[in-house]
Amino acid sequence: MIDGTDQRDARVVSLDRARDRDRRQHATPDAPDEPTGADQSDGDEATRLLVDQAEPERGDWLAELAERNRRRRPILPGWLKSRQEAAETAKWVAEYYAHIMAYQATRSPLYLLRLAARSPRGAALVIGGAHRWVFDAEGEPVRMAAVQRADAELYLKLSRQRDARVRLRVVVALVALVVLMLAGILVAAAPTWAQWAALALLVGVLGAAGAPADRPLIDRAVVPGRVARLDSDIVLRALGALGIAEINKARAKGADAVTFPAPITRDGPGWRAEVDLPYGVTVTDVIERRDRLASGLRRPLGCVWPEPVSDEHPGRLVLWVGDRDMSKAPHTAWPLMTSGRADLFKPLPFGTDQRGRPVSIPLMFANLLIGAIPRMGKTFALRVVMLAAALDVLAELRVFELKGTGDLSFAQKVAHDYASGADDDAIAACVASLREVYGELVTRAKTISGLPKDICPENKVTPELAAKRSLGLHPVVVAVDECQELFSHPVHGEEAAKLCEGLIKRGPALGIILVLATQRPDAKSLPTGISANVGIRFCLRVMGQVENDMVLGTSAYKNGVRATTFTAKDKGIGYLVGAADDPQIARSAYIDGPAADAIADRARALREAAGRLSGFAAGQTPDRAAGPAVTLLDDIAAVVPPDETDVWSETVVARLAELRPEAYRGWEPKQLAAALAPHGIDTVQIGRRVNGRFVNRRGINRDAITRALTERDHARPTG
Ligand SMILES: Nc1ncnc2c1ncn2[C@@H]1O[C@H](COP(=O)(O)OP(=O)(O)OP(=O)(O)O)[C@@H](O)[C@H]1O
């Protein structure tokens, strides 16, 4: 007998393991890493051993339990967890039934007519049926059969049974007739309305009895089956249509190449499928073929939202398929639209995700960057954030809209500092304000470091500290729309970039928040020192990977967070990164100009009541004395005295660099010409004699500068 104890060279071999090893050795060379069944399955099968796997230790059940614990399914359905979502769901369910009731109520006269038309047929059917029942008509064919077979005994038995039955039924029918006659007498003596009601009841009953089986009385209020149920076959069909070779190869090899770790369930207004893609296929591969996926699912693109699961492997896909295109879904009212106030220390309501769940932005201790191609909803998104900030009376707002269309004009009612314009003045005002806030960094840091530890334990602004007016640590929110105009400005760009970088890095802990929006997210218009350090990012539609990663952060595109997949009709829809653990798809709340004004009026009233209206909104002219001269034209006028009519450009740039090195150092004559062009000033040829030789160079004519300055001053609004 062979056993492991007395045969030194022999080993105990599990038959299962031996088979496993055999299988591996005979595996085809093109699938060397093909997993065994134990790899693929979970639950009971997961306990099967691979030939080269160590025996599981006794404590492994704990690890397994921990893993199961991590995958617990929620007790309450998702929509019941948030008050707002539950309210939304209750609202649409109520709306659905209200619609059905209204639909049927408006058709009730038609239904009455139908009943009346069907009632004669119903009466005939009722009388005929009663007659057949009383005289036992259903037994007639059997009795006739007995007669034909001349079976006298059976016939007698059936006849006796029929007579007994008919006697009883005639009595019942007579009683019913008497009851009906009594009811008729009662109705005849009743008031008219009761007579009509009785008639309606009779017609109704007879009409219902006379309804043809193929024509229902009531029309359908809802077209059935508009949204197909999502099932695993449809998901597999769609995944197979993506043209990903690995998926098709894996599906050809085995039925369980694509698995579903959780059942496909209803999730908000759509279906949610959790899918484990075949080995080696990542969610990013699927996301970049979203349009093909939508085609495979036979759903509009705006309904199909594949997402990675960050705390799982890169092949775990959550596919949410909405009933309705996200861009066409009705807007949920912004929670602060008609009432309420905000607290910057808590997340600010921003919009909704594709499932209609609320999305908020924790703006405190962070910065926000919004980017997109033009007309996709940057300013609308910025408006939502700034209106929420306005509803926190403690927050000091500084708003600069550098497009000049007045999209953020509501801010004039509440902002401490405000400017709107596509000109140098607005940019200069913005830089001056940034300088002031930058100066605050030092003051605030000193204040905080001077506070006792028990009042300020974390060395950062707290809600209590922010509320103490004497400390001056209230939140400051600086918003710059179309910030590319600022950073690419020939005079102020470099300084603005430095100021913003400082604010982005040091501001959050000190209660200073910078919110930037740009339609040109490239290295020149959005310095990397800024784009790399922003905490929260919202990227609506962009056209390429570079812009995507500029706004959403390095590697966002590689990780499947791609705002390039949005289409032109996805207005207001973007990827929101940094507001929650995982990137979210969010649609900003829709607040148009008049609504924004109404909210700003409310915010102003709150601020007035709290005595927190200051600066621009309180009618004070911003004191920019501390800042340098505001435009290039002013600077040139300062460095070129009135008696010098024509000056070479190189002389001008040298003097400018001396006047304000931080802004003009390194300027070339060409740069000066480019900076003057927007003012309608061209450089001119100026000839001079130098060391006896005539030299011709380009330069400026001082009169042109003076004229431009005069025009600007006349065009400026007064008061
Ligand atoms: N959340 C939203 N839902 C629906 N439509 C929206 C939403 N946000 C913006 N829009 C639509 O998109 C249009 C453009 O929005 P917005 O003015 O904010 O674009 P923008 O990106 O700031 O454009 P520009 O780059 O020209 O300043 C708006 O007129 C509005 O109709």
From TrEMBL:
Residues 1-27 have a biased composition (Basic and acidic residues). Keywords: ATP-binding, Membrane, Nucleotide-binding, Transmembrane, Transmembrane helix. GO terms for molecular function: ATP binding; DNA binding. ATP binds at residues 372-379. Residues 356-549 form the FtsK domain. The chain crosses the membrane at residues 166-187. InterPro entries: FtsK/SpoIIIE/SftA (IPR050206), FtsK_dom (IPR002543), P-loop_NTPase (IPR027417). The keyword Hydrolase does not apply. Residues 1-47 are annotated as: Disordered. This is S-DNA-T family DNA segregation ATPase FtsK/SpoIIIE. It comes from Allonocardiopsis opalescens.
